[in-house]
């Protein structure tokens, strides 16, 4: 019965996709919808100009019209034919932009990284570093109703995005794109929190209290800027109380009282701590 339902749902979904091949974006500049391919992604023929200025103008026009493959050909021609012109370095960065817009994110990461490495004092190094993080972000798995949620999938792309965006935010605090970088960094860190929470809840369901407490501790220790509130700290205290770990229970309760002095959970703290030295298990959250 279940397999019949899944098959029917899959068929309906595929039919709907066939009838509407244009998907709407969910908002923002860095949605995880795949960036549409160039309008001329097939065979592209271009007519090169005689000077780097001519080719740059043609490239920029194609880029503006979202003909990214044609634009990339012009930028590559500038880089190869006029390597010592003032447009060569700008063309290198634009090639990376074309790869990003064509959803060639792994290639874009290499191109942006090489630009930053080869031109460490260039004014656009911050931008290139940001786009490395944005390219990793674009590769994060998305949710679909017939497959496991994104937080249950491999988190490698999420971790790569978090590292790259953290590097950007730390190194370029005054860069024009830094607020966008902080926004993306917060999102990917919350995705990592969701993964840790899913694992913690799994260990709780199968009655593995030590593993459950350990995962909560990871959230508390590594994601204090986005995930720690009074409820989490109280849950950590309860988890350690179940394990009869008085010092760690007290540590969590002390942090709760210090960071959230107005929380009603502080009233329950002494009872939770007292339970670590009795035979009565502490109640679960």
Strand coverage percent: under 5%
Give the averaged pLDDT, no decimals: 84
- The value of Rg in angstroms is 26 Å
Outline: elongated
Task: Summarize the entry for a quick read.
The protein has 285 residues and is mostly helical. The chain contains 12 helices and no strands.
Descriptive account of the structure:
With 285 residues, the protein is an all-alpha fold. The chain has a domain at 48-102. It has helices spanning 2-19, 52-64, 68-81, 88-101, 105-118, 125-138, 156-171, 178-205, 209-222, 230-242, 246-259, 265-275.
SSE blueprint and pairings:
Blueprint: H1 2-19, H2 52-64, H3 68-81, H4 88-101, H5 105-118, H6 125-138, H7 156-171, H8 178-205, H9 209-222, H10 230-242, H11 246-259, H12 265-275
Helix pairs in contact: 2-3, 3-4, 4-5, 5-6, 6-7, 6-8, 7-8, 8-9, 9-10, 10-11, 10-12, 11-12
Distinctive features:
285 residues, mainly alpha, disordered N terminus
